[in-house]
Protein backbone atom coordinates (compact mmCIF):
# COMPACT_ATOMS: atom_id res chain seq x y z
CA UNK A 1 0.00 0.00 0.00
CA UNK A 2 1.65 3.23 -1.10
CA UNK A 3 1.77 5.84 1.60
CA UNK A 4 0.97 9.39 0.68
CA UNK A 5 3.85 11.62 1.66
CA UNK A 6 3.06 15.06 3.02
CA UNK A 7 5.03 18.21 2.54
CA UNK A 8 6.27 19.75 5.73
CA UNK A 9 4.82 23.13 6.52
CA UNK A 10 7.30 25.97 6.37
CA UNK A 11 9.06 26.33 9.69
CA UNK A 12 7.82 23.09 11.20
CA UNK A 13 11.03 21.21 10.41
CA UNK A 14 12.94 23.22 13.02
CA UNK A 15 10.34 22.36 15.65
CA UNK A 16 10.35 18.66 14.74
CA UNK A 17 14.14 18.55 14.94
CA UNK A 18 14.12 20.21 18.36
CA UNK A 19 11.46 17.77 19.55
CA UNK A 20 13.37 14.68 18.35
CA UNK A 21 16.62 15.95 19.82
CA UNK A 22 14.87 16.54 23.14
CA UNK A 23 14.78 12.76 23.59
CA UNK A 24 18.57 12.58 23.76
CA UNK A 25 21.73 13.14 21.72
CA UNK A 26 21.24 11.95 18.17
CA UNK A 27 23.00 12.32 14.80
CA UNK A 28 21.46 13.57 11.56
CA UNK A 29 20.75 10.10 10.24
CA UNK A 30 18.98 9.20 13.49
CA UNK A 31 16.85 12.32 13.29
CA UNK A 32 15.68 11.56 9.76
CA UNK A 33 14.93 7.94 10.71
CA UNK A 34 12.93 8.95 13.76
CA UNK A 35 10.91 11.56 11.91
CA UNK A 36 10.01 8.90 9.36
CA UNK A 37 9.20 6.20 11.89
CA UNK A 38 7.25 8.32 14.35
CA UNK A 39 5.22 9.91 11.56
CA UNK A 40 4.52 6.38 10.25
CA UNK A 41 6.33 7.11 6.99
CA UNK A 42 4.19 10.16 6.23
CA UNK A 43 6.99 12.65 6.74
CA UNK A 44 10.32 12.19 5.09
CA UNK A 45 12.95 14.86 5.44
CA UNK A 46 15.41 15.40 2.61
CA UNK A 47 19.05 15.59 3.62
CA UNK A 48 19.22 18.80 1.64
CA UNK A 49 16.84 20.44 4.14
CA UNK A 50 17.78 18.50 7.26
CA UNK A 51 21.45 19.43 7.47
CA UNK A 52 21.14 23.15 6.73
CA UNK A 53 18.40 23.27 9.39
CA UNK A 54 20.58 21.42 11.91
CA UNK A 55 23.50 23.76 11.32
CA UNK A 56 21.28 26.84 11.53
CA UNK A 57 19.85 25.65 14.84
CA UNK A 58 23.34 24.93 16.11
CA UNK A 59 24.53 28.39 15.07
CA UNK A 60 21.58 30.01 16.86
CA UNK A 61 22.59 28.13 19.98
CA UNK A 62 19.44 26.03 20.20
CA UNK A 63 21.36 22.83 19.54
CA UNK A 64 24.75 21.84 20.88
CA UNK A 65 26.81 19.46 18.77
CA UNK A 66 29.49 17.03 19.77
CA UNK A 67 31.46 14.41 17.88
CA UNK A 68 31.14 10.96 19.34
CA UNK A 69 31.21 7.32 18.48
CA UNK A 70 28.10 5.84 16.90
CA UNK A 71 26.84 2.30 17.48
CA UNK A 72 28.93 0.98 14.57
CA UNK A 73 32.09 2.56 15.97
CA UNK A 74 32.25 5.38 13.42
CA UNK A 75 32.64 9.04 14.37
CA UNK A 76 29.36 10.91 14.06
CA UNK A 77 28.16 14.37 14.97
CA UNK A 78 25.60 14.16 17.75
CA UNK A 79 23.15 16.96 18.41
CA UNK A 80 21.51 17.69 21.72
CA UNK A 81 19.14 20.33 23.00
CA UNK A 82 20.62 23.36 24.75
CA UNK A 83 18.86 25.32 27.48
CA UNK A 84 17.99 28.00 24.96
CA UNK A 85 16.71 25.33 22.59
CA UNK A 86 14.45 23.88 25.26
CA UNK A 87 12.82 27.28 25.78
CA UNK A 88 12.47 27.74 22.04
CA UNK A 89 10.87 24.32 21.67
CA UNK A 90 8.36 25.06 24.42
CA UNK A 91 7.30 28.32 22.79
CA UNK A 92 7.11 26.75 19.31
CA UNK A 93 5.06 23.86 20.63
CA UNK A 94 2.50 26.05 22.34
CA UNK A 95 2.36 28.25 19.27
CA UNK A 96 1.75 25.21 17.10
CA UNK A 97 -1.05 23.89 19.30
CA UNK A 98 -2.77 27.25 19.27
CA UNK A 99 -2.49 27.48 15.49
CA UNK A 100 -3.63 23.89 14.91
CA UNK A 101 -6.55 24.39 17.28
CA UNK A 102 -7.62 27.55 15.49
CA UNK A 103 -7.39 25.95 12.04
CA UNK A 104 -9.31 22.92 13.35
CA UNK A 105 -12.03 25.16 14.71
CA UNK A 106 -12.49 26.89 11.39
CA UNK A 107 -12.60 23.61 9.48
CA UNK A 108 -15.25 22.21 11.85
CA UNK A 109 -17.41 25.30 11.96
CA UNK A 110 -17.38 25.76 8.21
CA UNK A 111 -18.57 22.24 7.53
CA UNK B 1 46.11 36.19 12.76
CA UNK B 2 42.33 36.24 12.85
CA UNK B 3 42.19 35.85 9.09
CA UNK B 4 44.70 33.06 9.32
CA UNK B 5 42.57 31.31 11.89
CA UNK B 6 39.44 31.70 9.80
CA UNK B 7 41.25 30.13 6.85
CA UNK B 8 42.20 27.18 8.99
CA UNK B 9 38.71 27.00 10.35
CA UNK B 10 37.37 26.86 6.83
CA UNK B 11 39.41 23.79 6.06
CA UNK B 12 38.44 22.17 9.36
CA UNK B 13 34.79 23.00 8.71
CA UNK B 14 34.95 21.40 5.28
CA UNK B 15 36.41 18.22 6.73
CA UNK B 16 33.67 18.14 9.35
CA UNK B 17 30.87 18.67 6.85
CA UNK B 18 32.33 15.94 4.73
CA UNK B 19 32.52 13.33 7.46
CA UNK B 20 29.09 14.25 8.81
CA UNK B 21 27.44 13.76 5.42
CA UNK B 22 29.50 10.68 4.60
CA UNK B 23 28.38 9.07 7.85
CA UNK B 24 24.74 9.55 6.87
CA UNK B 25 25.41 8.32 3.34
CA UNK B 26 27.07 5.13 4.52
CA UNK B 27 24.27 4.47 6.98
CA UNK B 28 21.83 4.61 4.07
CA UNK B 29 23.99 2.23 2.03
CA UNK B 30 24.05 -0.20 4.95
CA UNK B 31 20.26 0.04 5.28
CA UNK B 32 19.77 -0.89 1.65
CA UNK B 33 22.24 -3.75 1.92
CA UNK B 34 20.34 -4.98 4.97
CA UNK B 35 17.19 -4.92 2.83
CA UNK B 36 18.93 -7.36 0.52
CA UNK B 37 20.42 -5.20 -2.22
CA UNK B 38 23.85 -5.74 -3.68
CA UNK B 39 26.36 -3.22 -2.41
CA UNK B 40 26.51 -1.59 -5.83
CA UNK B 41 22.75 -1.22 -6.07
CA UNK B 42 22.60 0.00 -2.47
CA UNK B 43 25.20 2.69 -3.21
CA UNK B 44 23.30 3.80 -6.31
CA UNK B 45 20.04 4.10 -4.36
CA UNK B 46 21.75 6.03 -1.59
CA UNK B 47 23.22 8.49 -4.09
CA UNK B 48 19.74 8.96 -5.56
CA UNK B 49 18.16 9.54 -2.17
CA UNK B 50 20.91 11.77 -0.90
CA UNK B 51 20.97 14.17 -3.82
CA UNK B 52 23.99 16.34 -4.53
CA UNK B 53 26.31 16.02 -1.58
CA UNK B 54 28.44 18.92 -2.83
CA UNK B 55 25.33 21.05 -3.11
CA UNK B 56 24.36 20.30 0.48
CA UNK B 57 27.89 21.10 1.59
CA UNK B 58 27.76 24.43 -0.19
CA UNK B 59 24.49 25.22 1.59
CA UNK B 60 26.04 24.32 4.93
CA UNK B 61 29.07 26.51 4.22
CA UNK B 62 26.63 29.32 3.52
CA UNK B 63 25.10 28.81 6.97
CA UNK B 64 28.53 29.14 8.59
CA UNK B 65 29.79 32.02 6.48
CA UNK B 66 30.51 35.18 8.47
CA UNK B 67 29.42 38.31 6.61
CA UNK B 68 32.50 40.21 5.43
CA UNK B 69 31.72 43.42 7.32
CA UNK B 70 31.10 41.51 10.50
CA UNK B 71 34.42 39.73 10.02
CA UNK B 72 36.14 43.06 9.49
CA UNK B 73 34.59 44.48 12.66
CA UNK B 74 35.65 41.38 14.55
CA UNK B 75 39.21 41.80 13.30
CA UNK B 76 39.31 45.45 14.32
CA UNK B 77 37.90 44.75 17.77
CA UNK B 78 40.41 41.96 18.19
CA UNK B 79 43.30 44.24 17.15
CA UNK B 80 42.12 47.00 19.48
CA UNK B 81 41.88 44.56 22.40
CA UNK B 82 45.44 43.39 21.79
CA UNK B 83 46.74 46.96 21.62
CA UNK B 84 44.98 47.87 24.86
CA UNK B 85 46.27 44.76 26.54
CA UNK B 86 49.94 45.64 26.13
CA UNK B 87 50.27 49.39 25.47
CA UNK B 88 54.06 49.52 26.00
CA UNK B 89 54.66 46.82 23.47
CA UNK B 90 52.27 48.52 21.03
CA UNK B 91 54.09 51.85 21.35
CA UNK B 92 57.43 50.12 20.74
CA UNK B 93 55.99 48.43 17.67
CA UNK B 94 54.56 51.69 16.32
CA UNK B 95 57.87 53.52 16.88
CA UNK B 96 59.84 50.72 15.27
CA UNK B 97 57.55 50.78 12.28
CA UNK B 98 57.69 54.58 12.04
CA UNK B 99 61.49 54.69 12.22
CA UNK B 100 61.84 51.76 9.87
CA UNK B 101 59.52 53.23 7.28
CA UNK B 102 61.07 56.70 7.64
CA UNK B 103 64.66 55.48 7.31
CA UNK B 104 63.72 53.25 4.44
CA UNK B 105 62.02 55.98 2.46
CA UNK B 106 64.90 58.41 3.17
CA UNK B 107 67.46 55.92 1.89
CA UNK B 108 65.29 55.11 -1.05
CA UNK B 109 64.93 58.79 -1.99
CA UNK B 110 68.73 59.04 -2.14
CA UNK B 111 69.04 55.89 -4.19
CA UNK B 112 66.21 57.05 -6.41
CA UNK B 113 67.88 60.42 -7.05
CA UNK B 114 71.44 59.14 -7.39
CA UNK B 115 71.13 55.73 -8.98
CA UNK B 116 67.67 55.27 -10.45
CA UNK B 117 66.97 58.73 -11.81
CA UNK B 118 70.26 60.64 -12.15
CA UNK B 119 70.21 64.07 -13.75
CA UNK B 120 70.07 63.91 -17.53
CA UNK B 121 73.68 65.13 -17.91
CA UNK B 122 76.93 63.23 -18.26
CA UNK B 123 79.05 63.21 -15.08
CA UNK B 124 76.15 64.18 -12.84
CA UNK B 125 78.48 63.98 -9.83
CA UNK B 126 80.46 66.97 -11.12
CA UNK B 127 77.45 69.28 -11.43
CA UNK B 128 77.21 72.19 -9.03
CA UNK B 129 74.45 74.66 -8.33
CA UNK B 130 75.65 78.25 -8.10
CA UNK B 131 73.60 80.91 -6.39
CA UNK B 132 74.37 84.44 -5.50
CA UNK B 133 73.99 85.89 -2.03
CA UNK B 134 73.34 89.46 -1.14
CA UNK B 135 75.16 89.85 2.16
CA UNK B 136 73.14 92.89 3.09
CA UNK B 137 69.95 90.88 2.94
CA UNK B 138 69.51 87.62 4.74
CA UNK B 139 67.90 85.46 2.12
CA UNK B 140 69.74 84.11 -0.93
CA UNK B 141 68.79 85.72 -4.17
CA UNK B 142 68.24 82.95 -6.63
CA UNK B 143 67.82 85.24 -9.57
CA UNK B 144 70.95 85.77 -11.65
CA UNK B 145 70.88 88.31 -14.46
CA UNK B 146 71.94 86.93 -17.84
CA UNK B 147 74.61 89.64 -18.06
CA UNK B 148 76.13 88.39 -14.80
CA UNK B 149 76.08 84.84 -16.07
CA UNK B 150 78.25 85.99 -18.95
CA UNK B 151 80.63 87.67 -16.49
CA UNK B 152 80.84 84.48 -14.48
CA UNK B 153 81.72 82.51 -17.59
CA UNK B 154 84.41 84.93 -18.58
CA UNK B 155 86.11 84.98 -15.19
CA UNK B 156 85.57 81.30 -14.49
CA UNK B 157 88.66 79.21 -13.78
CA UNK B 158 87.09 76.49 -11.62
CA UNK B 159 84.31 75.04 -13.76
CA UNK B 160 84.32 73.67 -17.25
CA UNK B 161 81.44 75.96 -18.11
CA UNK B 162 78.55 77.72 -16.45
CA UNK B 163 75.03 77.79 -17.73
CA UNK B 164 71.74 79.08 -16.46
CA UNK B 165 68.06 78.26 -16.64
CA UNK B 166 64.89 80.11 -15.96
CA UNK B 167 61.58 78.91 -14.69
CA UNK B 168 59.68 82.03 -15.64
CA UNK B 169 60.30 84.90 -17.94
CA UNK B 170 61.53 87.65 -15.64
CA UNK B 171 62.80 89.96 -18.32
CA UNK B 172 62.16 93.58 -17.54
CA UNK B 173 63.08 94.81 -20.92
CA UNK B 174 60.56 94.69 -23.64
CA UNK B 175 60.20 96.18 -27.05
CA UNK B 176 61.30 95.47 -30.54
CA UNK B 177 64.85 94.48 -31.38
Main-sheet strand order of chain B equals 1-2
Q: What is the number of strand segments of chain A?
A: 3
Strand content of chain A: 5-15%
What is the general shape of chain B?
elongated
* Main β sheet profile of chain A: 3 strands, antiparallel
Which structural class do you get from the secondary structure elements of chain A?
Answer: alpha+beta
> What is the CA–CA distance across the termini of chain A?
30 Å
Query: What's the β-strand tally of chain B?
Result: 2
Unreliable segments of 5+ consecutive residues of chain B = none
Q: Span between N and C termini of chain B?
A: 75 Å
- Percent helix among the residues of chain B? 55-70%
Proportion of beta-strand residues of chain B: under 5%
Mean pLDDT of chain B: 83
Please tell me about this protein's structure.
The complex is a heterodimer of chains A (111) and B (177). Chain A is α+β, with helices and mostly antiparallel strands and 111 residues long. Chain A contains 4 helices and 3 strands. In chain A, strand 2 (63-69) and strand 3 form a beta hairpin. In chain A, helix 1 (12-22) packs across helix 4. The longest helix of chain A has 27 residues, at 83-109. The mean pLDDT of chain A is 88. Chain B is mainly alpha-helical. Helix content of chain B is 65%, strand content 2%. Chain B has helices spanning 2-34, 39-50, 53-64, 68-85, 87-116, 146-155, and strands spanning 132-133, 140-141. Chain B has a two-stranded antiparallel sheet with strand order 1-2. The radius of gyration of chain B is 39 Å and the shape is elongated. The model of chain B has no long low-confidence stretch (mean pLDDT 83). Chains A and B meet through helix 2, helix 3 and strand 3 of A and helix 1 and helix 3 of B.
